[in-house]
Write a structure and sequence with these properties.
With about 280 residues, the chain is mainly alpha-helical. The chain contains 9 helices and 4 strands. Helix 2 (about 30-50) runs antiparallel to helix 3 (about 55-80), helix 3 runs antiparallel to helix 6 and helix 8 (about 225-240) packs across helix 9.
Length: about 280
């Protein structure tokens, strides 16, 4: 989720009986908007590929969601580094995120988990899958709206309140990508388990569980040469063993927020008892 910073609205005097916004005359900043547009393009492509529904198409959809996460991370960072933060960027980024991390993973999850399961005259699984995917989509949109209103967790930009929508979409995409060799789910038992995951991710997005934002990492400062080497090695490992590494990364991030939340709760209880 990109983190554009809203700026104070400036408006021109009334012209012809109507107030005109000066920002509309100035246009938009090109570079961060291109990144956000690329994010939106990836979400659109992922939705179309998921609707086609072939095994390779579903894997391409999962990869497109992963690429959208990269573009989403870049647009906000570029806007901050270049001083091109605008209210337009906030709204454009949120709309793109709803498509790429709400609609696209919901369609992908439905296509991968239900389309090839034999119906056997039972329509309950179809309704269950439809509602679980809808719950994921609604929670992702709710999470983005809350972020636009409330921003980061109190105390700075170190933590998000609730699981970020790109991370939740990344869990769906990583699992589909890891299992694409075996094809979509064909067993109704696995299908039920798959669709239970979506409301859980939705609950994490709308919760108050804090997740690390990685925004306090000094990317623009000088680093030791070993840091660059480690980053290159990590990128190579992810590229070569993406089916396994991405699931580990996405799953670990999702679980880390829950574990740390439980640790904080236990710590507060212990402090309250000793007080």
């Amino acid at each position: 989720m990109a983190d554009y910073e809203p700026y104070e609205q400036q408006s021109m005097p009334f012209v012809g009986g109507k107030r005109r916004d000066r920002r509309l005359r100035r246009g938009i900043y090109l570079l961060p908007s291109i990144m956000t547009g690329a994010n939106l393009l990836c979400g659109y492509y992922a939705s179309i590929a998921a609707l086609i529904g072939g095994r390779e198409d579903l894997d391409r959809a999962a990869k497109a969601i992963g690429i959208a996460i990269v573009f989403d991370a870049l647009d906000g960072r570029i806007a901050r580094m270049t001083g091109t933060n605008t209210e337009f960027g906030v709204q454009f980024d949120s709309i793109a995120d709803v498509v790429s991390f709400g609609i696209a993973p919901a369609i992908l999850a439905y296509a991968w988990g239900y389309r090839n399961v034999p119906a056997n005259g039972d329509t309950f699984l179809g309704h269950f899958a439809w509602l679980c995917c809808l719950a994921f989509l609604i929670c992702s949109a709710w999470r983005l709206a809350r972020f636009n209103v409330q921003g980061m967790a109190p105390g700075g930009s170190k933590n998000f309140v609730g699981m970020p929508t790109p991370a939740a979409a990344g869990v769906v995409a990583a699992i589909v990508h890891a299992c694409h060799w075996s094809g979509p789910i064909i067993s109704w038992r696995w299908s039920y388990g798959w669709f239970v995951l979506l409301p859980i991710l939705g609950a994490l997005m709308t919760s108050t569980v804090r997740y690390y934002s990685f925004k306090d990492i000094p990317w623009a400062r000088k680093q030791r040469s070993v840091t660059v080497i480690l980053l290159v090695m990590a990128t190579a490992i992810i590229w070569r063993y993406s089916e396994f590494v991405l699931v580990i990364i996405a799953g670990s991030y999702a679980l880390a927020g829950i574990v740390l939340h439980m640790v904080r709760a236990l710590r507060h209880r212990m402090v309250a008892r000793t007080a």
